Structures are given as C-alpha cells and as structure tokens.
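Exercise 7. Given the components listed, write out the predicted structure of the assembled complex. Treat all entries as one system.
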Amino acid sequence: MNWPAFWLSVQVTAIASVMILIVGLACAFLLARVRFPLKILVETLIMLPLVLPPSVIGYYLLLAFGRGSPLFEWFHIRILFTWQAAVAASVVVGLPLMVQSSRAALANVDPLLENAARTLGAGEVRIFWRITLPLARRGILAGMILGSARALGEFGATLMVTGNIPGRTQTLPVAIYDAVQAQRYADAHLMVLVMTALAFAGLILARRLEPPTSGRRLEQSAEASA
Amino acid sequence: MSPRLHVDFIRRLGNVTLQMRFTLNTEILVLFGPSGAGKTQTLQAIAGLSTPDSGVITLDDTTFFQRIPGKPLINLPARKRRIGYVFQQYALFPHMSALENVMFPLAGRRDARERAMELLERMHLAHLAQRMPHELSGGQQQRVAIARALATEPRVLLFDESFSALDRPIRERLHEEIRALQAERRLIVIYVTHNLDDAFAVGHRLAVVRDGRLEQIGRIDEVFMRPANQWVLNILGIPNAISACVVETGPSGAFLDWNGITLEAPPINAPPGTQVVAYIRPEDIRLIYPDRPLSRTIGNNHLEGIVVEHRLGRHMHHLKVALPDSRQIEAVYPASSYTTMNLTPGESVRLALRKESIVIITGHQEAVRSDASRLDGHPERNPASAPSLPL
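Answer.
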C-alpha cells in the first residue's frame, strides 16, 4: 500500500470537495433561480467535463495554468506539477455532478414557500438558509458525495497536470497505474480494493440521500388524507 | 382611526390587463370571479409578491407601492409590508414543526416561543404544537398557517382560496374563526374565492372580478339584489334573467313586454321602447291554487306553464316551469307551502309574479359582454344554472 499516495488523495479530495460545494452551490443556485442571457452556454460549459476525455481536460488545465496564461502572468498562480493542480483537476471533473444534483434539488423547492417566508418578514438571505437550503439539503449532499467520489477517482487530467511525482504529486489512482506498470500487483490489489470500497460507499450514501418523493408530493398526499 | 387599505393599480398579464381600484376599511371583502380573472394577482400585488405596472397601494400613511408619473417610485418589499397571507396550499414549511412554523416570523424576539404558543392556542392547536405539517390534517395545517400569518401582527390578512381544498364542515368552522378574528383584531381581510357559499359565509362586501376588472363591488346582499349587469347576474347563478321591452312607464309602475307576455314591474326610468335586462326573483314567485280565489297581494302578473322539474330541498323546494316559446322560469318556495298541490312534471301550473319580484338591471347596454369563452375556459360558477333565455 502506497500510504503517501493515499494521504495525498485524501487531502486533495477534501480540499476539492469544499471547493466543489461552494462553487457548485453558487452555480446551481444561479442556474436554478436566476434568468440570464447565454444561460444554456454556461450550463453546457459546466457540464462539459462529464463527456470530455480526461486528456482534453488536462490539456485545457495546462493551458489555463501554464506560462502565458492570465492566471500565470497576472495572478501569479503557479500550481502546475504540484498537488494543487490535482485539486484543480478534481474540482473541474467533480463540479458537474454537484451542480446537476443540487440544481435539481433547489429547483424542486416550492417558490410558494419562499413567498410565504417573504410575507412573514424574512429577508432573502434568511430565506436561503432557513427554507431553501434545508429543503434542498438531501440533493445537495448527494451531489457533493458524487462530486467528491469523482474527485477522488480523478486520474487522466491529474496525470497530465501533476507530473506524477511519487510522494509529492502522486495520487492514489495514479499510484495504481504506476504499480501496474511496474508489475507490483500486490500493491495494486490493495489500492484498487480501497478505491472500490470508497466509491461503493459513496454511491450507496448518495443513493440513500436522494429523496424518495419530492416534498410537494408529500404535501398532496397529506391533503388527500385530510 | 381605523386602518384603510387603498388599492389602485394596473398590471398587464398576457392577454388580460388587471385594473383594480377599491378602498377597504376594517371589513371582510370577498373577491369573487372565475379563475384567471386576476384575484390572486391582486392579492400578490398588495402583499408585494408581484409588482404592478403603475398605480398606488397604501395602508393608512404607509405607501406600499407607487408608480405614477412625476412621483418617485416606491415599492416596499414584501417582508416590510406586514401583510398576513394564507395560501391555498397551506405553504407550511415542511421541515419545521407547527410551533417552529409560527415562530418563524418571530425570530429574534425573546418571547417568540410564548407568543407562538399563544397563537396556536388561539387557533385551538396547542396540543399539536410539536407535530410536523405532514402529520396534520388539511384543516389543522390551515389553522397553523393562520396562526403563523397572525404572528407578524398584520393589519391586513389575505386569504387566497385558502379553504377550497377542505371539507365543508371544516370550512364552515374556519369561516366563523375568520369572522371572529377580524372583529377581535380589527383586521382588513380580503378573501378570494370562486365559491359563492364561502362569499356569503365570510364576507361583508363582495367584489365581482372579471378579466382583471371589477364588475361590481358592494354589500353582498345588495350585489345579489341588484347585479350590475347580465354577466354578474349569470356568474352569481341568479336564475330567471329576462330581456324585455318597456311598453309603458308611470309613477306606480312600468309595463314590460317579455316576448308576448306583459309583465307589470316597478317604476323604471326609461322611455317606452327601451330594451332592458331584468330578472325575476325566484323566491317571490307564488303558485296559484286552481280551486281557490286569488288573494289581492298576488297582483297582476299571471303566467301559465307546465312543470318541468320539481326538486325537493330540506328547507326550500325548487320548481322549474316551462312557458311558451321554450322559455323557463324557476321558482323557490318554503317546503311547508303548497303541500296539497300536484306538481309532478307535466302538470300545468299557474304562477303569480308580484310586481316587486321583477328586478330591472340598469345600465346593461354598455356592460353586457357575452364573451364567456374568454374566461380562460374556466367559468366555474357556470351560467348554466341560469336558464338560457332568448335575450
């Protein structure tokens, strides 16, 4: 078992998850609630990593963070071939899952409830924290778990932007690839098992969080029985 | 000084322009009309959930909304208007208990819990305070919603078809509750419904809305007594609408020609030859016993017809009689009357109409609009209950 790779993966995934949560929630809210021009374009851009080959994503990341890019020249962000680049790759691939799931959850919250809260004197921020977020929380959590699981498993783009430096930028999936290349199968077995178990647990958790019926349907059934 | 709500605004909605203008004191106004007429939109404009295109909405000295040329734009957000809004779908927060729902508008107050409990007690729900909304019946949910709306200590309370999903006995109890609350807290209440029984049960005044405009507003009994026009007459389900021609007028009464039948009506301020719309009050129609002398009070308007339908009710019986020219007339009389008469369908019967039973609806010429199909296809209180007369 390659422990440095395991712990790096944990670290990368944890940081990526936080970023996925914040950025993903903001995107989801924007897409679910705000009408703006070229919305379909923004939406497609966020979703694109779901279908693009990892090497293409890796290439774009190399362009985005490489010498000559605005991030590199103006903001002095130099993360290529460090573990932070793995975080960037993980965020990009995990984001679409988070956005998809939490956007649906937010859209499912009945605007009537938010209007009711407005007439009861609540401001928009309070409405978001007390009404919208709690009612959408299962979908948001499910999206976050799926996004994190995807982030944990990120391989192709990570390989391209981190340079696969053992002990410094080598994450677990990359380490598995390395082990197989070097025919260290015992190592590979263990790591594969760990990855599989984590993904399995994540999917089950996400699945259980998905609401069996929407809140609105619950309300209607209560009405019918009243 | 009693609070006054003044509403005067215009809002364009698709193919209907909402144009509302009325002033309310502490009273219950029923907004009645077919769906799509703009009743909900009116409430939303008052509550601040939608923004009119122009106009003014004020409560006492507070301007909720103002958009008129030459004056600064004012649009007070909904949360600052302190208007209680009770929705049709209850709109309780499903992740909060009944108590937490009522406490929601009281956030930040130290006595929030006590005040919320008081309100739940007032709505007879104290024992259910810890229940979640889905564990409550529809009527209980709506009581929680009312308690929650009262928590902001509103001066205006809006009911948007709030009880239409509830059974009749529950609805009736809630109506009593609303009347009591209104009197007790001196509230301005607007109650939207498309159910006339509801209108009678809660309302002081009735406003009939059609295609975004007020067709008529007034005390409920007055609106029923004197519908402003043919459309109001139909939507209120008042039977026996007739179109007749003024033959002769005088200080003591007028004679109308109703397609060959001469009717004596109360005096009317219109020259002979004028076409008028009127209706015959069904409860003012008397039946004439074939074997008894006529009493003097029965007057002159005698009609002969064939019984079409005789419907028995608990207190009142309904009789439908066919007249010549495939006209029909409906009479309503107390169940204790005419018990010895044979009124099975096919029997002939004589009716007497007191002069006062004929109510002439004035100003009908400009108001009659017969495009009922434009009501979004939902004429709930269908004019079908009124006989289709050759108007």
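Discussion: DSSP finds eleven helices and no strands in chain A. Chain A has a mean pLDDT of 88.
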